[in-house]
């Protein structure tokens, strides 16, 4: 069974990723997201298949400056602990280090651009576009910005 890592930040990006939960039973899956009050239920629901990174956002710059390097180190540790063949992400910043590690260490990286992006790129998409094996957009208009992408339609 293929090992697939699903990773995203909490909030809307996690909500989008969880729209893919029908895939979980088809793979030896693992979930990584940020640890906050809205994500603790995942540990009980998916016993032994969930790990957390620190919740960091650029809007809280002090926490971001301290937490981001910790998340990079923890992502490297988790990458080698899980050894995924595939990494599927809906973003954002929490997922970037893991996707880059995956790219450089031989995992296939699949990025699903946010449903909220209709006419503009986000930072995560700009960074990961050249490192993904499959870049999926949810709006046809985004194909103009990401010509090598695939329009997968809405995941909702």
Primary descriptors:
156 residues, alpha/beta, Rossmann fold, 5 helices, 7 strands, globular
Low-pLDDT segments, ≥5 res? none
Instruction: Give the integer mean of the pLDDT values.
Output: 94
Order of helices and strands: EHEHEHEHEHEE
The number of helical elements comes to 5
Assign an overall shape: globular
CATH uppermost class: Alpha Beta
- Strand content is 15-25%
Fraction of residues in helix: 25-40%
Largest sheet: 7 strands, parallel
**Order of the strands making up the biggest sheet:** 3-2-1-4-5-6-7
CA distance, first residue to last residue: 26 Å
Radius of gyration using CA atoms only: 15 Å
What is the CATH superfamily classification?
A: Glycogen Phosphorylase B
**Secondary structure tally: strands:** 7
CATH topology: Rossmann fold
CATH architectural label: 3-Layer(aba) Sandwich
Classify the secondary structure makeup into a structural class.
alpha/beta
Q: Please, how many domains?
A: 1
Task: Give an overview of the whole structure.
By secondary structure, this protein is of the alpha/beta class. It has one domain (3-151): Rossmann fold. The chain has five helices and seven strands. The chain has helices at residues 12-18, 41-45, 61-82, 96-105, 123-128; strands at 3-8, 28-35, 50-54, 86-91, 108-112, 134-137, 150-151. A seven-stranded parallel beta sheet has the order 3-2-1-4-5-6-7. Helix 2 links the parallel strand 2 and strand 3. Helix 3 packs parallel to helix 4. The two termini are 26 Å apart. The mean pLDDT is 94.
């Amino acid at each position: 069974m293929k090992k697939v890592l699903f990773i995203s930040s909490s909030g809307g990006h996690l909500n989008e990723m969880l729209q893919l939960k029908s895939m979980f039973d088809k793979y030896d899956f693992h979930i990584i997201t940020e640890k906050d009050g809205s994500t603790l239920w995942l540990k009980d629901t998916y016993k032994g298949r969930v790990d957390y990174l620190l919740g960091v956002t650029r809007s809280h710059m002090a926490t971001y400056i301290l937490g981001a390097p910790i998340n990079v180190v923890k992502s490297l540790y988790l990458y080698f602990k899980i050894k995924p063949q595939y990494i599927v992400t809906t973003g954002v910043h929490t997922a970037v280090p893991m996707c880059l590690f995956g790219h450089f260490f031989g995992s296939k990286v699949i990025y699903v651009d946010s449903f909220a992006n209709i006419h503009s790129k986000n930072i995560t998409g700009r960074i990961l576009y050249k490192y993904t094996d499959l870049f999926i957009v949810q709006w046809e208009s985004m194909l103009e910005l990401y010509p090598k992408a695939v329009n997968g339609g809405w995941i909702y």
